[in-house]
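hiii so um. not sure if this is the right channel but i have a protein structure encoded as tokens and i wanna go backwards to a sequence. like what aa goes where. can anyone help
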């Protein structure tokens, strides 16, 4: 399986001031503490003392009632896209929501579970054993914010 960041062209567009999913310019925050600001592009924490962006992100191609939109963090400076391995420094919380989606970008009921971080890879393998799972999202267990997409690979 592959842990996938947001696309590099999306990250660059937001750094260039293009609007986010809500048609707003991403907000710039001048200083990261080095924790609690996971960049969805490099799949690491924004380094301490560095600026970062907050943008509304909808990690889906189409629109339907399941296409959630929410805030994400992004290094304000260029960073190298993360993946495909499990992003240990990026997933720094004790647990996350791991949820499977179908090819038509709908939640597959019964797949969402709050999962301890150390069990995420095993949970993804379990979900990918099901043919109807096209991809998986890892989301915040406390706020439901999108962290990264997981694909077969």
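sure thing!! here u go:
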């Amino acid at each position: 399986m592959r842990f996938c960041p947001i696309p590099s062209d999306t990250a660059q567009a937001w750094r260039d001031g293009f609007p986010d999913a809500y048609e707003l310019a991403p907000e710039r925050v001048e200083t990261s503490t080095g924790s609690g600001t996971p960049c969805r592009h490099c799949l690491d924490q924004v380094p301490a003392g560095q600026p970062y962006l907050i943008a509304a992100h909808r990690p889906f191609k189409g629109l339907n009632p399941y296409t959630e939109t929410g805030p994400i963090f992004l290094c304000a400076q260029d960073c190298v896209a993360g993946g495909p391995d499990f992003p240990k420094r990026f997933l720094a919380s004790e647990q996350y929501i791991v949820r499977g989606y179908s090819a038509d970008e709908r939640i597959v009921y019964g797949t969402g579970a709050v999962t301890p971080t150390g069990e995420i890879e095993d949970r993804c393998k379990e979900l990918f054993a099901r043919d109807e799972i096209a991809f998986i999202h890892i989301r915040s267990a406390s706020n439901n914010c999108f962290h990264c997409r997981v694909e077969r690979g």
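oh and Strands lie at 2-4, 27-29, 38-39, 44-45, 52-57, 70-75, 95-101, 113-116, 135-140, 146-151.
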